[in-house]
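Supplementary Data S3. Sequence and structure tokens for construct A.
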Amino acid sequence: MTGTHAADEPESPQRGIGRLRSWLLEGLSTETAQHKGPHATPSAEHEGHAWWRVMCLTGVDYFSTLGYQPGIAALAAGLLSPLATLVLIALTLLGALPVYRRVARESPHGEGSIAMLERLLPWWSGKIFVLVLLGFAATDFMITITLSAADAAAHAVENPFAPHWLSGENIWLTLALIAALAAVFLKGFREAIGVAVVLVATYLSLNVVVLVASAWQILTQPVQITDWTHALSASHSSPLAMVGVALLVFPKLALGMSGFETGVAVMPQVRGGATDTYEKPVGRIRDTRKLLTTAALIMSCFLLLSSLATTILIPQSDFKAGGPANGRALAYIAHEHLGQAFGTVYDVSTIAILWFAGASALAGLLNLVPRFLPRYGMAPEWTRAVRPLVFIFTSIAVVVTLYFDANVDAQSGAYATGVLVLMLSASFASTVATHQRGQPRASVGFGLITAVFAYTLVTNVIERPDGIKIAALFIFAILVTSFSSRLHRAFELRTNSVTFDKTAMRLIDQVARAGPLRIIANEPREHSKAEYHAKEHSQRQETHIPRRGPVLFLEVFLQDSSDFTEDVVVHGDEKHGVRRLRVGSAVVPNTIAAILLQLRDRTGQVPHVYFNWTEGHPVSHFLRFLVFGEGEVAPVAREVLRRAEPNPARRPRVHVG
């Protein structure tokens, strides 16, 4: 009879589930939203990267729009594409760039414009407004993933060397690219900046070659410029009419401004100066502004030159859906004028950077969700981990891809809506911030930029209402899931830590010498000595507190009830002949429960807490608890304690009179 080693035994299902759970939640922190990826906050010992390297990380999103932007501009503005692009460049350099340079100054740790607006609006209004903005941000980043993957698939399918079986398989190829993107994050996203530098340098270099070849083609055959100008004159009555049309159609070109929000999100990766501190990262702000300015100037040059080249060299009919230049205008020129071999190299580079643009967008989502939703109690704590979110976002990307049939043009409206809303929110936040700092000229300037972005957004929504519909779906989903999570998590302790000041610790130790602590929960109003003694007398009678046993009064002052988790500091004092523990918090019963558990751990004895019943309907009290943090305190505190401490023998005792 032979023995069986434990290692040879089949793994139990419970052990397998435990390993899967550990793998999914790897890196989870209940204190902070730390996560892997290029948008993660570096550790203290991390030195960061030079600003131009981080610019390349932003650039995989920003510069990759060259893959489809010229084609979208041609569809939107036709022969006026270069003039409309000039308007877009003016808005980029005179509008978006100053706004995000201000955002970099106001939120130097990567919080972005959403956090700026969060600080401006109090209570639930601020939380709901942030949730709505997160819906638009989710639209922006999710459509970036799906649109970029769809355009990468289009470049692959349209390549003359592509296998014949790829023809018409754009959807499946797009889904494969999205799955590969998810696999990168499930494995662990490292050395992203190094990869981004290589991709951006290669892609921009190839675009320079394409644009130089286009310029040579145009200059050696000037008749093409003549044909273009004659066509413009025939289509429009005067130069003023051309400018007017360009001003009307440029909102459709808004995709050319994507990437600014990502630029401020990656700020923690910028090395900054040697004398930088967390409170004053002057060098990081300076270098991030260099990053934003350099990226905007590079992109502006490429946008203008590519628009001129594609408008002059490509027939307008080729830009339409199904045409050879649809969604791949510069690739079309690369194949036509530089040969199929170079065109294939260009296609491979374009596919790579478009795919990696999705990586940057996914990292942006992984930066936003853990930063806001768990802190609001509007997402489970496991959403601070990367891998569960990757599965969720990948599933959403699959649904979006199938809904749009992996069509680039069909998704551009939703993408532009998300981009413009974030830019509008950033310009509005900058306007308010400069106004509060007493900078009237700056606030007027940012106010004008806000008006331009508002016009651009409204025009885009009117022209492409599908964008706001998709964003509304994201907003609705975020609101429903967020408030459902808040309701589900209502009975958690909701405190990161409980700290007692010196006076509180002295009072606790004094009372603990007489036995288990007796705590009277009291409404935090200014009481007279007679009222305190009347309260103590009634509690001793109704709940049978030992007559000569010392008691502590516990009073919770309500603060912002929309907050969820917090660090609690308990202050002690002696007034009106009673010992008091006083604390400010967003919620009364949960805070009392957390303090009781901390008192138990400090004294080694299970404390007793004494309440009065509150008059009123239980449903209205429950709603008051959810919205205002109070209501019927006694039963809620008891339920919070029951969930937090499963052992009844160690659970603080709740008495109600």
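Construct B, processed identically:
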Amino acid sequence: MLAGLDPEQRAVATALHGPVCVLAGAGTGKTRAITHRIAYGVRSGVYQPQQVLAVTFTARAAGEMRGRLRQLGADGVQARTFHAAALRQLQYFWPRAVGGPVPQLLERKIQLVAESAGRCGLRVQRTELRDLTAEIEWAKVTQIGPDDYPAAVQKSGRDAPRDPAETAQVYRVYEEAKSRRGVIDFEDVLLLTAAILEDRPDIADQVRSQYRHFTVDEYQDVSPLQQRLLDQWTGPGGGASLCVVGDASQTIYSFTGATPDYLLNFRSRHPEATVVKLVRDYRSTPQVVHLANGLLSQARGEAARHRLELVSQREAGPEPGYTEYEDEPTEAETTARRIKDLLATGVRASEVAVLFRTNGQSEVYEQALADLGVPYQLKGAERFFERPEVRDAGVLLRGAARAAADPLTDGADLAGQVRAVLASRGFTPEPPAGSGAVRDRWESLAALVRLAAEFERTRTAAGQQTDLAAYVAELDARAAAQHAPAVEGVTLASLHAAKGLEWDAVYLVGLTEGTLPIIYAKTDEQVEEERRLLYVGVTRARKHLSLSWALSRSPGGRASRKPTRFLDGLRPGSTAPGTRTGAKGGRGGVEFGERAAGRKVRGPVKCRVCERVLTDAVERKLRRCESCPSTMDEALYERLREWRARQAKKQGAPAYVVFTDATLMAIAEDVPASRRELAQISGVGAMKLDKYGAAVLSLCAGEEPEEEPDGVEDDGPVEPA
């Protein structure tokens, strides 16, 4: 159970008695740590599996947790969402606590909200209706009734979508309508379960005797109502059986009532708690982690004071790319072309994502990818297991599992058997040409074949059964948990929907003021949440990361937009807010004040050969198109590389932290003769100019630079150019 865990993960896994608080940065293996903790407790006999309840926020996350626990031999542990766990308890205890049948659950409240608005004499557009419904949900999870809603909005500084008095009126009528019809909504499930446990000590004792060990994932996202229910589950002094896991820097759902306060104040509530910090990032390259740390280094507020500084455990990768476009269509079309080029290198489409701030930004990227024949999937669209072709495939596979040996599948591996069964519905090993519904259907069936191969590989390694019947049972379990396999297509998703996911390559698009931060983020707290949203987007990338923005909405439009303030001091040619030129970098290793003496103000960069406006980050650094002839002094470039290698060896750091290859190429092409000329090269900031300027200029002049003797103390590694 403990093999392969790093020291901090091992500390989590062996802290079997609470209270335990795990502060886990993005990509640090928190799910691995907490599932090993539960499994270690079960396998060592400290926990009885049926007495463990692990709760999280999405059915997908709960399904993944159950899958990992099964692989670790911890069958019987309950891993559910807050709502699923509460609903089971409500259905079980309602006849005894209240009497009669449990009220019917209202799956979607938006229609009843619309009817309630009509009863109030209000005409509400569909988009307004969604906002109104979300506002009622916020009020309920923060335990605010209709009468108190207007005052609560004013006190919180919340930007209400419409007049608070009108919202309160609709809220009141909506609650009355539910009562008349004998239905409850998802928020009522939590509220009624908590109320029963509060009012009936005998029932509360029964629940606490059933569940003695609790784990709460994504604890930074709990609402006051969820915390109220959790307090009832654990009971007085229940911290002894509680382990919480979270990261305040990933709090991005405060508009739904989530708050990091419970995570940040956990030690105050439980002074005896064990606190473990996970900061070893196994997901992202040092370049991606450097940018993520830089974003948080400029953050403000309570969550920022508890930020975790990540340390990448991966080998170096490419630098994040920053690209400015003239208009949105150009941004989308160029992004799509770059994705197609990346796929041509062997990167799978399912390992690529385009992330944006609002769902309305997706259409132009859908069109751009479709025009190039690149398959994509829109996150948040129809659920995988509800697709007709997937339901049909499930029926076929169940029939094949019940039947005797099939000559078509006999002797084949599991993936081959699944492929043979699906062939009766026209599935082929190769995808159809083009995109659209036919390609979407093929991608769904291909995902089932890949899942079969993965299932067989995992189960065989664990010495477990791997026949078709076992695979069908796995599909049923995944369908119940909405734990869908990956579909082979580029993911298009909002930054909120991307939480908890990761890809090899991430394209963050539309990063302009007014979009990120969104225009209605007015207070400091709201702006900081927008910064955290970008941080979540950055930390989704394993290796390739691209950040882009467009100066105008449409071709020929006024170029009035500005790139997001969150990249100030991080993107080339920008200065961090509140810093002076030449200032030293702060925590996170951001190189502030890059505009050294003589550095040009950011603006269009034209190719020195053909004068085309450049948008690619490397081309802008070289000041020429990739296809235009190079004037690079090859001998100088090699001397610069040899000198860089010596510097890196002295510092015990990778070579790229001295200068990147692109910066050395730019120097070898420009061959600067003065500090002023050297400062004009992208990637040579004030710190690097002071540290390396004399040596680089000596090399450019054909001279050997003066070398510091070995053992001379350095002022620390310099961050990447």
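The radius of gyration is 28 Å. The longest strand covers residues 541-552.
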